[in-house]
Design a protein that fits this description.
The complex is a heterodimer.
Chain A: H1 6-14, E1 20-22, E2 28-30, H2 32-45, E3 58-59, E4 75-79, H3 83-96, E5 101-105, H4 108-118, E6 122-126, H5 134-141, E7 151-156, H6 160-163, H7 167-170, E8 175-177, H8 181-192, H9 195-198
Parallel strand pairs in A: 3-5, 4-5, 4-6, 6-7, 7-8
Antiparallel strand pairs in A: 1-2
Helix pairs in contact in A: 4-5
Chain B: E1 8-10, E2 13-15, H1 18-25, H2 30-57, H3 60-77, H4 80-94, H5 98-116
Antiparallel strand pairs in B: 1-2
Chain lengths: ~200, ~120
């Protein structure tokens, strides 16, 4: 229903975002009303497009459900709470990958929900996020069967020693230091996205 | 490669070394730097308000995240001295020192407002 792993939902319950109780047999049950409230709050808070422009859709909507088919544009999901870097990635993609559909989530929980909904070709995750951090989010996403179909990159302002506590999730994942984002992100996207659909318009 | 763009001063006002920032952080793309800087100026005014609210509400995690994000954005633009103050706020907030973090924030706040109207 939420498109999220059991662990992610457990975390939401632990934080009081969903109401839950245990049956006499020890099974956890989630109140449907609290799920509806959570979904409604996400839809209401993610409605405004960040920068609609020139063929690429840049939005923060949680309500968009992507469909398959030949017309489906490559999708990149960015999970980053920094408005500054959301804008920078938006600018980069509009400029260099005008046919890519960029979706943005401000925090890890919204990102998990959007991931299940969108199943993007590329997922870009910041490490320091409100709610759950990027490393926990990545660990959770790895339990999704469809995660094998997505490319993952981590973007962060943390330098290498500062990343040590998150190393468990970063193995074999390309990590882009934010000061190098403009140089390195387009290279990764060029490598990962279907060239004809994503390439620069001429 | 130098780790940070080196700015310079005109009188009392710090000016970023735009050329170095474009070369080091924007892969030589001056138009992208300009577009990013324009977006940042609008956001800095909002950030200034968010930091005030975090200090008034005693929300150190929010202040830490805000300062962390500002540090990166200011560094990208070549505002090294301002980024250093943001790093100080971030570090003090992470250490749980509310008084010192907010004192450092009160030094960063007018810098952001100055950038917002520049």
């Amino acid at each position: 229903m939420l498109g999220m792993s059991v662990r992610s939902v457990q975390l939401m319950v632990d934080r009081g975002e969903l109401e839950a109780w245990k049956t006499s047999g020890g099974h956890r049950r989630i109140a449907r009303a609290s799920v509806d409230r959570w979904r409604n709050s996400r839809s209401l808070t993610k409605a405004a497009p960040a920068r609609p422009a020139r063929g690429s859709v840049v939005s923060k909507t949680a309500a968009t459900r992507r469909t398959g088919g030949a017309a489906r544009r490559p999708c990149v999901l960015l999970i980053d709470d920094s408005i500054h870097f959301q804008k920078l990635v938006s600018l980069l993609i509009q400029q260099r990958f005008p046919n890519v559909d960029l979706q943005i989530a401000d925090d890890g929980i919204a990102g998990l929900a959007l991931y299940g909904q969108l199943q993007p070709e590329v997922l870009i995750v910041d490490i320091l996020l409100p709610g759950i951090d990027g490393a926990t989010l990545i660990t959770s996403l790895r339990s999704h069967p469809q995660f094998a179909n997505s490319h993952l990159a981590v973007v962060t302002s943390l330098d290498e020693p500062q990343r040590a506590p998150y190393a468990f999730a970063l193995e074999k994942v390309p990590v882009i230091h934010k000061p190098r984002l403009v140089a390195e992100l387009p290279r990764l996207l060029t490598k990962w996205l279907p060239a004809k659909q994503a390439a620069r318009a001429t | 490669m130098a780790s940070h763009a080196q700015g310079h001063r005109h009188g009392e006002v710090f000016e970023p070394d735009v050329a170095a920032a474009i070369a080091q952080r924007f892969d030589g793309d001056a138009a992208l730097y300009k577009a990013f800087a324009t977006d940042c100026r609008a956001q800095f005014a909002l950030d200034a308000g968010a930091g005030e609210a975090a200090c008034e509400g005693g929300d150190l995690p929010a202040l830490r995240r805000l300062a962390h994000n500002l540090r990166s954005a200011l560094l990208m633009l070549g505002h090294q001295p301002f980024a250093d103050v943001a790093a100080e706020v971030e570090s003090l907030a992470a250490a749980g020192d509310s008084l010192a973090a907010c004192a450092a924030w009160r030094r960063l706040h007018p810098m952001l407002l100055r950038l917002a109207i520049s």
